[in-house]
Amino acid sequence: MTDETYVGAVDQGTTGTRFIVFDHGGRVVSNAYETHEQRYPEPGWVEHDPLEIWENTKAVITRALGQAGIAPEQLETIGVTNQRETTVLWDADTGTPVYNAIVWQDRRTTERIERLEENGAVEAIRSKTGLEPDAYFSATKAEWLLEEADPIKMERARPADVRDRAERGEVLFGTIDSWLIYNLTGEHVTEVTNASRTMLYNVHDLAWDDELLETFSIPRAMLPDVRPSSDDETYGTTDPDGFLGAAVPVAGALGDQQAALFGQTCFDPGDAKNTYGTGSFFLMNTGEEAVASDHGLLTTIGFQRSGEPVQYALEGAIFATGAAIEWLEDVSLIDEPSQTAELARSVDSTDGVYVVPAFTGLGAPHWDQRARGTIVGMTRGTRKEHIVRATLESIAYQTRDVAEAMEADSGIEMTALKVDGGAVKNNFLCQLQSDIIGTRIVRPVVDETTALGSAYAAGLAVGYWDDLEELRSNWRVDREFDPEMDEDLADERHERWSQAVDRSRDWARDER
Fold this sequence. Notes:
Enzyme class: transferase
Binding site for ADP: 14, 18, 278, 322, 422, 426
Shape: globular
Helix content: 25-40%
Binding site for glycerol: 84-85, 136, 256-257
Catalytic activity: glycerol + ATP = sn-glycerol 3-phosphate + ADP + H(+)
Pathway: Polyol metabolism; glycerol degradation via glycerol kinase pathway; sn-glycerol 3-phosphate from glycerol: step 1/1
Number of helices: 16
């Protein structure tokens, strides 16, 4: 390949959409970003407008190419990465959503999950999907849409019953990767990592599971075809008469956290990364073995290349890390995220304050849907600097909770953890993370590893890159952080954190 061709990646996240153009060295050539509206129609509900996301996707692709003077024909392929679990239903004929997308953070189906627990369905779901039953995943979101989209009388919904039309394949289901690929190519497909997050896909049989479809009353006719993450046959091509004006193959897709695993070149068993975004997601490659967790982690699919076995991963999903920093802005304790490091350094400690940012419950390894955000240990002398520092420390403590579970399940003691995401630009947080976990933190030069992972998957499929070794050679370290805190002190503070977590649990109950 020459230097005059590139690979593009659509990175559709919780708060916005980015398009990044990469060259053969895995370097960023151009990128553009657009936020979308966060909708909270009721307490615990979180929605996005799928049409807004698609319009933003077109806009950032066009803008990124234009800024760099790159013609669409210079794109060898496009990869897609996406916020996982977020669920969309749309009309197969018109491509119009029947309702807003229900976001992964949404808790409206909490009671449905509790009924499954009461009915003894947890172990069957866990054994088939590797997931801990939770409102976080797509199955109960899709079920809710099928039952409630018509009664809500959304303007987009057609008069006929949504469920009846879904059973005829006239209404389609997808996570955001499917929604974008459908709009880019006209094909209704997903890939294995996103399928593995729906709570409808058997990660051992690598197929939609009939018993799970029956449990959640999801018609098979509405489901997408499941393809490899890096697909030599491609998912389809963009319409040369469409917005891009060229036929570009879409050949790779990965859920955002698996994309970061791939972009961090965690190709071997034991390789691990943590991505700090709205939430944090800690994944460890376990190879061709689907390792069952005894410590509250998820068994998930890491990636699959065409014609090769699936690579599995253990995952610890933390719901609120970057969201905790956003909360500090929401309540005017900071004006922008970059202030957190300075404010945190201005005090020697949190002065006994602990923040548990369980705004939408607790994920791994606790899995408490009814936990809520808590601040404990405040005195009359508590200042905003203590609360800001305690919020940063909460990110490190939550990550340690998952790291300990990961080591217990895998039997592998980590010597280093690769990190990425917006928050890792904060050197104070990276050092704090190293201190609290007691391991080396490694930050790469290219921190857009989520987009890079989907670009790698797509580029491998069309031969832009030859093999995994070539991708490893692209990976470069920006900075490493080694533990400086006394180990006993780190243990003592983490134990106190665990006590604060206990006080946040089982809080959200009906208050009528």
